[in-house]
Amino acid sequence: MLSMTLVILGLTAVSLFLVLQGIFGVPIKGSITLFFAVTALYVFTTSALGLLVATFARNLAQASLLIVLVVAPMIFLSGAWTPPEAMPDWVRRLMAISPLHFYTDASYGILLRGATAEMLRPELTGIAGLGCVDLLLGLWRFRRQFS
Question: Is-above-0.85 flag for pTM?
Answer without folding.
Answer: yes
